[in-house]
Every structure is written in structure tokens, then in C-alpha cells.
Specification:
By secondary structure, the protein is an all-alpha fold. Helices cover about 80% and strands about 0% of the residues.
């Protein structure tokens, strides 16, 4: 079940990207 193992880390990476985007664009 590699998909289930990769899903949490992929979601985590996506959240990190969102956090970085919000830091670069605080006016949103």
C-alpha cells in the first residue's frame, strides 16, 4: 500500500508549500 504511505507526506509537503506561499503573500 505505497499510496497510503505517500499520501500523508504528500499532503504535508503541500501544506508546507501553502505556508510558504502565505508567508510570501501576507496580503491575501
Amino acid at each position: 500500500m505505497k499510496g497510503l504511505r505517500l499520501a500523508p507526506s504528500a499532503r504535508y509537503m503541500h501544506k508546507k508549500e501553502i505556508d510558504a506561499y502565505e508567508k510570501e503573500n501576507p496580503d491575501l
